[in-house]
Amino acid sequence: MSILFASLIGFLTAAGVFLSLRAQTFPVVLGLTLLSYAVNLFLFGMGRLKTDAAAVLGNSASYTDPLPQALVLTAIVIAFAMTAFVIVLALKTRAELGNDHVDGEDDASANEQGGPSA
Amino acid sequence: MSLLNPIVLIVLLPFLSAPFVAWFGGKRRRAAAWAAAAVTLLCLALLGGVIAQFIAQGRLADAHVIGFHWMPSIGLDFAFRMDGLSLLFTGLILIIGLLVIVYARYYLALQDSAARFFASLMLFMGAMLGIVLSENLIQMVVFWELTSLSSFLLISFWQHRKEARYGARMALAVTGFGGLALLGGVLLLGHVAGSYNLSVILEAGDEIRQSPLYLPILLLILLGAFTKSAQFPFHFWLPNAMAAPTPVSAYLHSATMVKAGLFLLARLFPVLSGTNEWLLLVGGAGLITFLLGAYTALFKHDLKGLLAYSTLSHLGLITLLFGFGTPMAAVAAIFHLINHATFKASLFMVAGIVDHETGTRDMRRLGGLARKMPHTAALAIVAASAMAGVPLLNGFLSKEMFFSEAVDVAHEFGSNWALPLLVTLGGVMSVAYSIRFIHDTFFGTPSPDLPTEIHEPHRGMRIPIDVLVFVCLAVGLFPALLVGGLLTLAAGAVLNGPPPHFSLALWHGFNAPLMMSSIALAGGLLMYLSRRPLTRWHENSFGRLSARAVYDRLMALMQIAAEAVTHRFDQGRMQPMVLWTTGVALIAGLIGFLSYQAPLFGNDSLAAPFDALTATGMIIMMGTAVWVVNQHRQRLFALLLMSVLGLGVSLLFIRFSAPDLALTQLSVEVITVILMLLALRYLPQQTSSERDPKDRPRIRRDAVIAVLSGVGIALFTYAVMSRVYDTIAGYFLANSLTEGGGHNVVNVILVDFRGYDTFGEISVLALAALGVYALLQGMRLPPAVSSPIASGRIAHAQLLQTVTRLLLPMTLMFGIYILLRGHNAPGGGFIAGLIIASALMTQYLAQGIDSSERALSVPTHGAIALGLFLALATGMGSIVLGYPFLTSAFTHLHLPVVGDVEVASAMLFDLGVFFVVMGASVLMLTQMAKLTRVEPTAQTSGQVAK
Amino acid sequence: MTPNVNLASHSFDQILALLVFLPVLSAIALIALHRAGWRLKRLISAVSVGILLLATIYLIVSGAGNTPQVYPMGDWPAPFGIVWMYDRLSGLMLLLTALLGVVSLTYAIATNEDHRGAHFHALFQAQLFGLNGAFLTGDVFNLFVFFEVLLLASYGLMLHGGGAARSKAGLHYMVINLVGSTLFLFAVGALYGVLGTLNLADLAVRIGQAPSSLYGVIAAASLMLFVVFAIKAAAFPLYLWLPGTYAETSAPVAALFAIMTKVGVYAMLRVHGTLFDAHTAPASLVHLIGPWELWLGIVTLIMATLGVLAAMNLRRQIAYLILASVGTLLIALGVNTTESIGAALYYWIHTTLLSAGFFLLADIIRRSRGDDGWRVLPAMPRATLIGGLFLTYAMGMAGLPPLTGFFGKAMILHSVLDSHLMGAIFAVVLITSVMLVIALARSGSTLFYRVDQQEQAIAAEKVTATALTAVFTPLIIAAAMVLFALPLTSWLHGTSNQIKDTSVYIRHALNPAVSRLHTHEPHEPPTKSTRSDH
Question: Where is pLDDT greater, at B407 or B853?
Fold first, then answer.
């Protein structure tokens, strides 16, 4: 099961990295969200996978490791805050630069590289 | 020792006086000059006092060291040393400085800022004194660099002239470079000798010469000396520094700045000299500079240019003498050093007078000034003859010694005739340019366009020259009487031992040196007479080469390289940044694994059992991830896929016993999606396609990086998960109820064991809300696209409104219930806050802004502040009770509906969390939603306090 | 074994709590009063920063950090709860933060920069909260949380005032740091996943006991963590975000950000210094990071120097000067001896303060000249005063005497004399210094000497005396650092001794006696606590 779990995290990471390398803000935001999914699952996995062992005292015989869960909760909320901010920042750059390219270039030259940007 | 020690004062006074000099000068121009002169006189008086005291003690000959610790960690002491050598230089610097100040007082024009000039001059004087009086070598480097800086200020004094700026920067670049090399050399030297203090170093000569570091030390220190004393190949800055006002040239380029390098050679003579490397490097550089300078001086038409190159030549001569490495040569070097200071300073002043009176320094236009200003002419003739080495003048004596040393050294190398020949040639040329200086300026016929009413300068400008020329004569006539003692003293210090016996007499009988001198005089005259063909020949041969061009080329190259590299690497583009970051992280992880022969995976037998349902779920999620990438251009659709993934994640959380996470993930998901929907209205609905063939390689590269990262992270995950580990978690399970008063361990960790994390985290959320708020102020967006779903107005709004209106109270209730039970069952402040926020939001979307704002105007800022305050107050409460932040206490309480609960102080904290989460989410959502309403033009920066 | 020095005195506890929570309190007040007048906001902000400065000075002077002090959050002993660790290094960083806070706030108020957008003061306080929290924590996950706090605050501040170039640079800055944060979580998670703890000291102990089969994971995680810190510290090749960010943001924010790169360097020194110290770590892991710091430092220094030469305006040039100083610091840290770290700390204080002041000066030049680029423009008002300031700052940053830059570099060079890379380090540090001198001399002569006599000067913005004091302060401190080098350097040497002797740090951190309520033995002592999976 852990193998599947690990490869799921791998898939999410790959997708996240690829999207965060795009040239426009929205896909980048999606990519970062995917990355946060991946890392949250990763943190969660650090407590190992256990079924029916919620760390609520008195509910079950053995308990899962509650600490990673607490960390993930924190991570989720922080990721939420960051996502919210970066979305608005994407709007901001759209408003200031007139397009949604990460370097504010118009779509014509949107995706090429090289040459110092002014 | 105290700072009031006269030796220390001599160094400090000029520095301390500089601001006052500037201040006086601000008031009245003349005041600046007199203040500077007064300080210099005071220093001279102090010097006199010191000498008198030493004589009284009968310890004039030995070195007197005073100082205290400054930065012991690097062996830098604040220490000074007064011995023969430093005494000689201190006198030179102060006396010539005084004369230059008097001269400059009358030289400067009205529009020149006397304040700036004399203040910089004081700084420079202080720095020079610091060099020659330093006992600690690092401290000497400090003053060394200070001379570079203050000379930059002096050379660039006429800053509106391009030449001045250029010359100053060149001087700073070259000498500054030398200074830093010197720092390196000194550090190594001290490392070998075990101290940076001269008293130790001067005794460690053999040790240093045998050390493997000797050559690097020598090279670095010579770099310092040669750049400062303008020795080949670093000579080119000196002529360019002639853009400085003439008094500056007279001071820096005759007596002080350029002599610092020679001083360094003399100072470290006992330590570094006496090896072949020394002879080769120092002697070589000296000889080349000696000849090159003299040769170039012949063809300069600018008076100051001629003097500059002749200075080079004489510096080369002295360097060559040090290069010989014999005690006698050292004596000769010191002697010529004194003489050169006197005649060269006076000649610069003469050039200044000529420039001042005629308005030009070009010898092709000058002439016949002897009739107009006989006094100045007379002075010039004497000084120039001293420079040429005419008998009965000081220059003659030291040149004689120079010649005889050359002969002796040549003898050691098997009666080598080349050296004497070359030095004689040098002598010939220096005679020639001396004659030219006099004849072309004061005799011959002036060019007609020269102003006619030319007269002697103000007495104040002549007196300094009178003094200097008098010295030239006097020393020339009675050398032993006047400088014999001083020379012995200085030589003793240079050699760090008894000086050799030398006789300063006009007549040593007919010998090689005398012959060479006479050849020089005769040949010089001849050369001057045949100057025209020579000049022509020069101008179509060597005239073309210039070291300055090489320097310019180097600088240009450096600049080009810098710009090429920088603009190639730092393009200010985001994609390369992300690429580098991911790439480096990948490599770091890889290296981490590969550098240890450890198995990649462990063998944990206790992994969760396989079950098909979960497996398929995860596989579907993987598929969805790929699908998102594939569909990301259809933004709305990609967003829907994302929420599917989010749902999947929360399902996984439930499956693997993390109900709290599942709930949080779900509610976060809802709000995030709504935010993105609202944002999408102002962004293109499609990402522009990258079908363009020129994009292919980049896309392929990104894909490779992405896949590699994915594989890497997957392996990394399994590498950890497949291992057994030993965790502190047991403590939480054990103490959650008894110490934390809650059954839900995760929640207890969040609000108690690690409540401080949670506090930081809600601050992050609050900050995000504030940031969003600030960002959206006065944002000007193009009108929104109205696609049915993105518009956030869902069809059948009527129905939805009624539903939400009914649902709202229930969801509020549910939220509060979740909040209360959080400590013991899945739930808690986060989840409650998010649930209620999303409830309010549904209301919002269903009813549109206005009505819902009327219906529920949540003071979001207030909520955030209140929440943070509650959380903080809870924590502070325990501090008041004498326990650390957030120490919890709890009791039992019976509530209806919810039942028997432990009420922990931590729950108050959780309430704070609730308010922050709720307030922040609603603030962000409403701010975003407001955009849908306000027309871009109508948006004014509301928050700007004005 | 419970050394009682470990039980921190009461007043000390409260001052520590004040350092972290006073900014929060002010931030809360500023949020609640966000519609109030600007005078009140400025008052709150200024008072808070002033108190912070006094408190940090008191802590240093009182010598509280001479032995590491532990503050257990919620009274839970380490490694179970989060602890603050206050020692000389944290004390120094707190002091620097407060100083920068005062300087940059003064300037922001003097130039009304704080008006040019919402919530400046709240974000400013939050920034200080995040910084102080990060400098105090002894727990790696908590370090992550406070990185996020200070980052989010910095995003807000960086974008304060808006504008196209600024928004773009802000986007880059934020995205890069989001990637960094993700990496941070991966690394910390992995460390917990194999070692089962989050407390720094406990991690160090457990690494010491770890079986060699875990070294791979530990090394990978730690190197990823190093990458995260390298992003913050702006080391090659991860510094690309810095020039844009620092050059485009408003001057007071850029000045405050002078501490941001140091956060990264601090984290390396604190985290990796503790985890892989020779006292505790297995021999094969001790040299995991040092060489990287050294080489990255060398490359960073070279690249930054080229950037200084190529920069097209003063602000960008200063941004690259900061990079150069980061490179120099990393070299000294990489050599990793008590001497080199002591030297690094001196240089550290110097560069933090001077680069902050230099940014403010650049802004003053821009205001009074109309532009801080290399165009030839009419002479600016008060050119002599401002030019003098420029000369002093330039000398300091390039490493010429008499200011701290020279002595800092000299100390670092002196401290590497025994390193086997001595030659390379000498060459790079000295040659880059020359190039910096050349570049700054050119900038100075362009900005102040090459004046356009024909053109009529534009109506320059008035530069208030208050703004100038903000620029003078760092210079005065730097001068004091030279004059009183004797006590300062010996204090710093003691500090680096403390940093290098991690066994003391660990002993104090893990002493159960720090907690007053939960003093009884935990049901399962940490060392042999049950494996979570049965």
Answer: B407
